[in-house]
C-alpha cells in the first residue's frame, strides 16, 4: 500500500481528550500517512494547532453533514465521501452517522474504526435508550470499536451488544518521562509560586459536563491558603468566574486559557483536581500522576482504578462538591502526604500509562484494519 489517506470524522476538533489522542497518533505516524479532518462544528478546529510540522493533513472543505435527522440521502453522501480514503476513523456519538452510513452503503467504502471516549452532559446521568439502539444497529459495520476505559468496555460488550473480538480497550498514554522533568516556573501566566499557598490545578475544557463550578464551590469551603488554576478554554468561562465571585475566591482563581505542552507546567501544581460529571479514562489524571501529584476526584469512569492504592482515599465515594472538598482538604494541609501519594502515582503512571504502548496498539489496529501490517511505519 502507498502512504494511506486517513479520514477523521469528529463531532468537533477542539482540543479535548479524544482530539489530543488523535493528534498524538497523527504526530507519531509522521509521514507514513496523510490525513483529512472533518469537524461537525466547522469553527471548532483549535486542536490542529497541536499537529506537528511535517504531518500531511487538511481540514475538509464542505463535507457532508455528520448530524441531522436520519436520512438515506445524507447517509449516501457520507458514504460517497468516505470512498476517497483508505481508512475512516470516527469519534464519539457526534460522528456515529459515519458508521451508520457505512452500514447502509457499505459497497466500496474503506474499513472503519470507531472510537468511543465518553459521554456529554446529556448522558452523564444515564445512557439514552435510543442512542444505545442506534449504536447496536450501526456498530456491526465497524471493523473495530476502540475504547480507553474498563467502564466503556463493559458498556460496549453489554449494553451495545458488541462481540468481544470487535472491542479493543487501549488505555490512553503519555510521554511519562517528560513529566518527571522540572517544570518551567513561568509556564502559567499569572501564577507565581510561593511557600505559603498550595496550588490546586485542573486541566479541562470549560464545558458543562466538566462541572468546574462544583470545583470552585468545593475550594470555597477549604480551610487553608491555596490558589486554584484552571487550564483550558471553552464556553463555561463566565459561569466559572461568576461562581468564584459568589464564593469569595475570585482573587484565588487563575484561568490562563489553553496552554500547550502540559509537561512544562503540570508540575507547578501541588494537587490535581477533577469535578466532572462524566469521564472515562481522563488524560489529565495520567498527566498529574506522571508529574508526581495526588489526584482529588469524584468516582467517575476509571479514575478510582487509575490512581495508586495510596491515592484511593482521595477519590470521593460519591458525587458532590462537599465530598470533593473533603478529599482535597487533607491534601491541602499535609505536604508530606502529598509527596507520598504523588510518588506512588508517578511510579504507576510510568509502569502502566506510557504512550509507547498506546501508539503501538493503535498502529497495529489501524494497520490490521487496512490489511497491511507494514502500514503506518
Record keyword descriptors for this entry.
single chain, 377 residues, alpha/beta, 7-stranded parallel sheet, 5-stranded parallel sheet, 14% strand
Could you walk me through the main structural features you see in this protein, from its secondary elements to its overall organization?
With 377 residues, the protein is an alpha/beta fold. It is built from 13 helices and 12 strands. The strands form 2 sheets. It has a 7-stranded parallel β-sheet with strand order 3-2-1-4-5-6-7, with helices on both faces. Strands 10-9-8-11-12 form a 5-stranded parallel β-sheet, with helices on both faces. Helix 7 links the parallel strand 8 and strand 9 (226-231). Helix 7 packs parallel to helix 8 (237-247) and helix 9 (283-290) crosses helix 12 (335-352). The longest helix is centred in the C-terminal third of the chain and has 18 residues, at 335-352. It is globular, with a radius of gyration of 21 Å. The mean pLDDT is 95.
Strand content: 5-15%
Helix content: 25-40%
Major sheet characteristics: 7 strands, parallel
Distance between the termini: 12 Å
Poorly predicted ranges (pLDDT <50, ≥5 residues)? none
Taking Cα atoms only, what radius of gyration do you get, to the nearest Å?
21 Å
Mean pLDDT, to the nearest integer, reads 95
Number of helices: 13
